[in-house]
Known about the structure:
Strand order of the largest sheet: 3-4-8-7-6-5
Radius of gyration: 18 Å
Strand content: 15-25%
Number of strands: 9
CATH class: Mainly Beta
Helix content: 10-25%
Number of helices: 5
Distance between the termini: 58 Å
Bound molecules: zinc ion
Structural class: alpha+beta
Number of domains: 1
Amino acid sequence: xxxxxxxxxxxxxxxxxxxxxxxxxxxxxxxxxxxxxxxxxxxxxxxxxxxxxxxxxxxxxxxxxxxxxxxxxxxxxxxxxxxxxxxxxxxxxxxxxxxxxxxxxxxxxxxxxxxxxxxxxxxxxxxxxxxxxxxxxxxxxxxxxxxxxxxxxxxxxxxxxxxxxxxxx
Length: 169
Ligand SMILES: [Zn+2]
């Protein structure tokens, strides 16, 4: 009786992880075959001209050029209504008001994101080692995630208001 060929499958795992991490790097969009291996990869691509027409300049700068709004200036850092925060580019639901908390940092802060909706990648810019957060659906820059958040996760998703829309409950 043949043994279950588990050991023949295991070598695929490192390849998959490699593909995932490569997809989170900078560079051109992956080809469709890579996409099928990495379901969290941005799957929606928007025409820059269309986005420039639809978004305001700050929304475009933050989401497409990895900008950062000045603290205490965005429309959601001190916003406490019940509802869902969506990606301003593709409308994916990213965060809920139930995970929002007052971090005192001047940007909307959440201790968790909606499952699978926010992807991360290393950010070495500005002489810092940070973890960038992006919309898993369209790749829009959202902000960064830090390990100084409250329980139960201990994480702080620090998000630009300019990356978000809000839908009241
Ligand atoms: Zn998006």
